[in-house]
Amino acid sequence: MHMPMSVSVSWPRHIQTADWSTSSFPSPVRVSQRLRVMGSLFVIMLVFIITAVLVKVPLEPFHFFLSTMVKIVIINCDLWAILQAFGAVLQGSLFGMAGLLPASYTTPIMSGQGLAGTFAAFAMICAIASGSELQDAAFGYFITACVVISLSILSYILLPKLVRCPFIPSPRPEIQNIDHCSTSPSHSRQLSASLRNQISQTLVHPQLAPFKIWILALSVCFTFTVTIGTFPAVTADTKSTLSDGDQYFIPVSCFLLFNLCDWGGRSLTAILMWPGKDSVILPASIGCRLVFIPLFMLCNVHPRAHLPVVFHHDCFFILFMILFAFSNGYLASLCMCYGPKNVLPHEAETAGAIMAFFLSLGLALGAALSFLIRILV
Fold first, then answer.
1. Which Gene Ontology terms cover its molecular function (predicted)?
2. Which of 83, 209, 246, 277 measures 20 to 30 Å from 93, CA to CA?
3. How far is residue 260 from each of residues 38, 183, 227, 373, measured CA to CA in Å?
4. Domain spans in the chain, listed from the N-terminal domain onward
């Protein structure tokens, strides 16, 4: 008796994070990975181009000033909402793709994010040193972003032509649809024992992947909640006790130092991955990062209304920042590398996208928490 039974759960191919608040549900419509990545890159580049043009929009004469500003605010709110959405789609697609590969392939994605932050911090310092107008600096930022995205699009187009990856499994019709297996005895005999086990597990638990990685997913979420809850809402208001009013203190000791150490921590996972994915040391270490919140709150942060200053000297702030940033990069990268390896091979893409969703969720929760933390200082 023919009993149609589809194992083609569309979830593994389309979990997307259109924003931190966007839930990931199975979709009946298949969107190719190439379209997701290329489409997101083109939309993001378009947003930056429009924003760069708006930077140069003249606001004179005065009676047009208010109306023009309102238009710019409205347009930019919409544009940045689009940017965040497609940026999340791109991130989910990339981590889903990396989930199909060995864990070492996730490290370059995490490291690239740290490098981007370092580049932005250097750009800020160069803009301050050059003494350029705010409008010119902003225009330069957005044009540079357009150039970098163009290079990313070109690289994505050329990469498949240059390298053929041996790790990505070829599509398996017997996994995608088992209808034919039930009616074709010869085809059924060709299935290996391990493959049958994978199919049976998928039939019984078609959405098992999230439960296998929930500790790692919550860990990466908690990591970024602590990080964004403190940086930069609290750290950017720290005042130097050695150089009164130095305009380079925050750009260098806060933004540049954080991004350099964060980049170093992310990159270290390329040669060292300790503790292991099943070790309790990993979530325990992430939990210990909570101590950085009161440490930064007790630094020389101004204005302040409630807590005393305990760590006056700049060296305390710099030491805390090094440990804070390095632990963020290293531990978050470990979680992102381990997540897709805790599931079956055909669930790896789903796991990678889920990990990207919880990363984005951590960023959003941290941003919301930062208001409360700053008020308590």
1. nucleoside transmembrane transporter activity
2. 277
3. 29, 59, 15, 25
4. 11-168+203-376
Taking 50 as the threshold, does the pLDDT of residue 347 lie above it?
A: yes
| Identity of residue 371 | F
Please say whether the beta carbons of 121 and 250 come within 8 A. no
Tens-place pLDDT, residues 145-162: 899 999 999 988 887 777
Q: What is the pLDDT of residue 22?
A: 41
- Please list, in sequence order, all residues whose beta carbon lies within 8 angstroms of the beta carbon of residue 277, skipping any fewer than 6 positions away: 216, 338, 341, 342
pLDDT at 6: 33
DSSP 55-85: HT----SGGGHHHHHHHHHHHHHHHHHHHHH
Confidence of residue 64 (pLDDT cuts 50, 70, 90): very low
Backbone angles phi, psi at 163, to 5 degrees: -130, 135
Among the listed residues 155, 202, 180, 162, the one whose alpha carbon sits nearest the alpha carbon of residue 343? 202
What 288-292 contacts at long range (C-beta under 8 Å, 24+ apart), as own/partner pairs, is: 289/223, 289/226, 289/227, 289/324, 289/327, 289/328, 289/331, 290/226, 292/226, 292/230, 292/320, 292/323, 292/324
What is the pLDDT confidence band of residue 174, given thresholds at 50, 70 and 90? Answer: very low
The 8-class DSSP code of residue 310 comes to: -
Predicted TM-score (pTM) of this structure: 0.75
Tokens of 53: 């043009």
The DSSP output letter for 355 is: H
Q: What are phi and psi of 348, to 5 degrees?
A: -65, -40
Tell me the CATH number for domain 11-168+203-376: 1.20.1250.20
Q: Which two tokens stand for residue 59?
A: 């606001």
HSE (CB half, 13 Å, CA atoms) of 281? 7
Nearest to 9 by CA among 253, 235, 225, 198: 198
pLDDT for residue 183: 44
Please, which pLDDT band fits residue 4 given cuts at 50, 70 and 90?
Answer: very low
Q: First vs last Cα of the chain: how many Å apart?
A: 70
Rounded to 5°, angle at Cα 71 from 68 and 77: 140
The amino acid that residue 37 corresponds to is: V
Interior CA angle at 331 toward 221 and 252, to 5°?
95
